[in-house]
């Protein structure tokens, strides 16, 4: 168990001193890059490969023309049969005729892709979210292992450790919510796409999908900014109080930075 505790302490200090500053700089570079620039918002409004009102009109015209052609051939066939002297009536099976409600239905057959730019940004940010949550789990355990046994004379040192631990837990809760954000976006977008397919003549449904994509883009930019700030703030907090966390002082009064 002592070896395991030592491993946790080494890993936590490496994260605080080395990896957190590196991740903060990487995210700062990402936020400043063109891929997360607000100039990219116009590109988020991608066109959908979905039926439009014009598609429906063309579809109905095609059905009407097809039916007209079939009726012409059927009538010609009856006339030819009568001219040949045959008294047998030409019967048309009910299955050969198309119900009017079916002929006016437009069916969309195909795949509706996700917003490509949004998917790229999600793939870029997901590793940072997972790395932060994994790292925070190690750091929390490290702080917990540093807390001395409860006895008179070390309460102040313990309070610094407890305050640092509480701050890290608060940030962890915020970052965990970023994962739910992506899931909720995908579900909402899927429901809107279903509306667009069902009511292609309603332009507001199309615009609502585009607006949702823009909102997700802004949210992803916000996540990148917040992750950068969280990496920076946790690094700053723990580095300023590193010695007090590792060796709580009982003979002097200090305050948490």
Automatic annotation (TrEMBL):
Stretches for region Disordered: 69-106
Bias-annotated ranges (Low complexity): 74-86
Keywords attached to this entry: Proteasome
One cellular component (GO) term of this entry: cytoplasm
Matching Gene3D superfamilies: Proteasome activator pa28, C-terminal domain, Proteasome activator pa28, N-terminal domain
Domain Proteasome activator PA28 N-terminal, residue spans: 2-52
Gene Ontology molecular function, alphabetical: endopeptidase activator activity
Domain of life: Eukaryota
GO terms under biological process: regulation of G1/S transition of mitotic cell cycle; regulation of proteasomal protein catabolic process
All copies of domain Proteasome activator PA28 C-terminal, residue ranges: 112-253
Compositional bias segments (type: Polar residues): 95-106
Family: Belongs to the PA28 family.
UniProt xrefs under PANTHER family: LD45860P (PTHR10660:SF2), PROTEASOME REGULATOR PA28 (PTHR10660)
Described function: Implicated in immunoproteasome assembly and required for efficient antigen processing. The PA28 activator complex enhances the generation of class I binding peptides by altering the cleavage pattern of the proteasome.
Protein name: Proteasome activator complex subunit 3
Organism name: Rotaria sordida
């Amino acid at each position: 168990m002592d070896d395991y505790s030592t491993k946790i302490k080494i890993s936590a200090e490496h994260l605080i001193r080395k990896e957190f500053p590196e991740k903060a700089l990487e995210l700062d570079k990402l936020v400043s890059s063109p891929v997360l620039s607000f100039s990219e918002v116009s590109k988020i409004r991608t066109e959908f490969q979905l039926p439009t009102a014009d598609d429906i009109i063309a579809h109905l015209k095609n059905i009407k023309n097809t039916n007209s052609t079939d009726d012409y051939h059927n009538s010609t066939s009856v006339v030819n049969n009568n001219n040949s002297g045959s008294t047998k009536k030409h019967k048309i099976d009910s299955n050969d005729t198309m119900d009017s409600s079916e002929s006016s239905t437009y069916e969309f057959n195909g795949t509706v892709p996700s917003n490509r730019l949004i998917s790229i940004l999600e793939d870029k940010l997901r590793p940072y979210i997972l790395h932060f949550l994994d790292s925070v789990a190690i750091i929390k355990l490290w702080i917990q292992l540093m807390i001395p046994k409860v006895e008179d004379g070390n309460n102040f040192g313990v309070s610094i450790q407890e305050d640092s631990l509480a701050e890290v837990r608060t940030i962890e809760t915020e970052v965990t919510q970023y994962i739910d954000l992506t899931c909720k976006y995908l579900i909402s977008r899927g429901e809107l796409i279903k509306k667009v397919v069902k009511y292609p003549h309603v332009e507001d449904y199309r615009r609502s999908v585009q607006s949702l994509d823009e909102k997700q883009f802004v949210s992803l930019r916000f996540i990148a900014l917040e992750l950068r700030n969280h990496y920076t703030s946790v690094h700053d907090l723990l580095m300023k109080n590193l010695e007090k966390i590792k060796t709580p002082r009982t003979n002097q009064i200090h305050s948490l930075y």
